[in-house]
Design goal:
By secondary structure, the chain is α+β, with helices and mostly antiparallel strands. It has helices at residues 18-34, 37-54, 77-84, and strands spanning 2-5, 9-12, 56-57, 68-70. It has a four-stranded mixed β-sheet, with helices on one face. Helix 1 (18-34) runs antiparallel to helix 2. Pfam families: PspAA.
């Protein structure tokens, strides 16, 4: 699957890693709901770092349809809430 990190580019990632990423996503949602800014920042960073560790970056001149879009590392809680919309499923849906 192709994951886009806003402001960074795209990463090819095996779907087998989604369950691991979903655990971080669930933690991120709890921190967002609690308004825990430091926890949110720490978990968002961990989530994005894990995507980089597990995935293979696509060349900058390649543009593939993205299966998953993640916020930029400097995104705020409010920006991530907007990205999620009203569904409340988190950034890693369907896992």
């Amino acid at each position: 699957m192709i994951v886009r990190i806003m402001g960074e580019g795209q990463v090819a990632l095996a779907e087998s890693h989604l369950a691991e990423l979903d655990k971080l996503d669930e933690e991120l949602l709890v921190e967002m709901d609690a308004g825990d800014g430091p926890g949110f920042r720490r978990t968002l960073t961990a989530l994005l770092n894990r995507v980089h560790e597990l995935g293979e970056p696509l060349p900058d001149d390649t543009l593939e349809p993205s299966d998953l879009i993640l916020p930029s590392p400097d995104a705020t809680i409010e920006e991530v809430r907007e990205l999620l919309g009203d569904d409340g499923d988190g950034l890693i849906p369907g896992t």
